[in-house]
Amino acid sequence: MYEKTFPHKRYNITLDFLKKHVPENSNILDLGTVNPFSEIMKKEGYNVINTTGEDIDTNQKAIEEKEYDVLTAFEIFEHLLNPYTVLQKIKSDKIIISVPMRLWFSPAYRSKTDMWDRHYHEFEDWQLDWLLEKTGWIIKDKKKWTNPTKKIGIRPFLRLITPRYYIVYAEKKS
Description:
Blueprint: H1 8-21, E1 27-30, H2 36-43, E2 47-50, H3 61-65, E3 70-74, H4 83-89, E4 94-100, H5 125-134, E5 137-145, H6 154-161, E6 165-172
Parallel strand pairs: 1-2, 1-3, 3-4
Antiparallel strand pairs: 4-6, 5-6
InterPro entries: SAM-dependent_MTases_sf
Organism: Flavobacterium alkalisoli
GO molecular function: methyltransferase activity
């Protein structure tokens, strides 16, 4: 497995969750450009195709046209303005989505230098669950985990005890 430090802790948990629900050699459409985790999935025996950086809010061709067994979206949905439409147009019957959770003690993330690196949504678990249910998905499994830091203070303590990430495996209603 990978180291236990950030982002490797997240990678380990995400990979374990993926392996639990998706067999090796599955064709995966991973929303987002090629990234360290999509490379890990490939090394673990998955056939991964990434989207190319298009604005998924306005251009859903990649999810409508490609053939894939599972759609994955790891820390992508918080950047979308329109996740409802995206979820409706997914061709696969299976999805795995992870999101950073909304933290009451921290504002939504917004890069001051990168226009795309912003969180429009930071979900509470019930919000993502509701969104999935309203768009025709049945949640089969889910998990939350923390992301502690090695700093001292109130916010680092809260990060130690407050779940930061949420991952869901869901299947389309038949």
